[in-house]
Every structure is written in C-alpha cells, then in structure tokens.
Amino acid sequence: MFNQNDITKSLSNLIEIYSKQSHNIKLCILSTSDICMTIMKRIQTAYEYEIDNNNLKYYGKDLFNQRACKLFEKLISSTTNKYTINQFWELWLLEDMTFAVVENINTVKRNLYSSDYRAIRTIVRSIEDIPFNPSEILEQLSEMCYDIFDKKIIYAM
C-alpha cells in the first residue's frame, strides 16, 4: 500500500543507490511531502498493452500484478512515417515499494489510434539496473509536483 513513509523511504533508497556510485544527489532538494502527494494521485494499474482508438479502450493483463506509479520516462528512439513509433524506458514505483524499469513501445496513427506495449526490463536492485541519469529522474519528479501546485489555494493577508 502506498503511504508517505514508505514512498519517502523507497525514494531515499533509490538516491542512496546512486550516492554509492559517487553521485552527489540529495532528495532534500525536493519537498518529499509534495512528491508523495503527487505519487499517490498518480497511482494506476499498468497493463501489458493499452489500445485507444478514440471510441474504445482495450487493455491487456496487469503488468506488475499490483498498482504502480510511473516516475520517469525517457525517449530512446523514434521513427515517423505513416505512424509514429516511439521507444521509451520507464521507471515505475510499485506498490511493494520496489522499482521496475519497463520498456514501452508506443505507436500512434494521427486521429485514429494509439497503442502502448510494455515489458518489464528489470527490477532495480543495483546501480547497473538503472539506465537513467539520477538528475533527470529528480528533475522529472519535481516537474510532476507542478500538478499539485496548480491546485493549491494561496491566501494573502
């Protein structure tokens, strides 16, 4: 189950994995409560495939057999012809507080349909399992928090 303490501990563990490899990264540059709130709002079921043809949506099997939140995605390759085909690597935080790296092949035919096919590349256990730059992950985490900043009410006195 997702809760603030477990999410904070998992993110700290991820940062610690990077810190062991002499990256000077600290989670404190971001507000952990804002990150946790954003993650809890973005929890979803990830599917092996999703197809959206504007009228109907089709889903495959549950990819992780638990809920998850996509924390990061990086475009690896892209081709465009009649269709746009993008290859992404994604970092997901799973409900059991482990991290998974997923490959996503996204195909889009303008105004007709889009499809995503996902496969688990690895469950993160060491630095070698993470094909991302830690500063990119932290940057995207902070960008995710902008969603909740838009909804906060600020009172001036």
Helix segment count?
3
Strand order of the largest sheet: 2-1-6-5-4-3
Strand content: 25-35%
Estimate the mean pLDDT confidence.
82
Instruction: Give me the count of strands.
Output: 6
Q: What summary fits the major beta sheet?
A: 6 strands, antiparallel
Overall 3D shape: globular
| Helix vs. strand class | alpha+beta
> What sequence of helices (H) and strands (E) makes up the elements?
HHEEEEEEH
How far from one another are the termini? Answer: 39 Å
Radius of gyration: 17 Å
User: Could you list the spans in which at least 5 consecutive residues all have pLDDT below 50?
Assistant: none
Number of separate domains: 1
In which range does the helix fraction lie? 25-40%
Structure write-up:
The chain has 157 residues and is α+β, with helices and mostly antiparallel strands. It is 28% helix and 34% strand. The chain contains 3 helices and 6 strands. A 6-stranded antiparallel beta sheet has the order 2-1-6-5-4-3. The longest helix is centred in the C-terminal third of the chain and has 18 residues. The protein is globular and about 45 Å long. The chain starts with a helix and ends in a 6-residue tail after the last helix. The model has no long low-confidence stretch (mean pLDDT 82).
List the helices and strands and how they pair.
Blueprint (H helix, E strand, L loop, with lengths): L3 H16 L12 H10 L7 E4 L4 E3 L8 E13 L3 E11 L4 E11 L3 E11 L10 H18 L6
Helix pairs in contact: 2-3
Offer a concise description of the structure.
With 157 residues, the protein is an alpha+beta fold.
